[in-house]
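User: Can you predict the 3D structure for this chain?
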Amino acid sequence: MKQRRVTHLRYLMTIYELGQVMPEVGAAAVARTLNVSCPSVTRMLGVLMGKGLVVRERYGKIYLTDSGFLLARGFQEKVCTLQRLIPAMDLCLTQEELLETACLLAAALPQHVLEKAGK
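Assistant: Here is the predicted structure, written as structure tokens:
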């Protein structure tokens, strides 16, 4: 799995999660959550808009398209499943490391593996 794809999914998941708790998502909130710069968010939003996964309104509000929403929600579900399963491996990960590991695995593992493991 290319690192770029994982990064795309992390941004989508972040926008999805922020949208669950705030009425309007902006680049600054995404930057704070991911601990990246606003110019980095702007560049990534351009990439995600080019893929038809997000829409950015004139005043900076960010929305997921239907396909972006489905991709982000599915990725979040995979990440949550893995965050529940990985600790059994006794890897002594911090919460940040656990999230990063779960994201990497969620992007790389086929869906059927997670369906079987999540039961």
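The chain has a mean pLDDT of 90. DSSP finds six helices and two strands in the chain.
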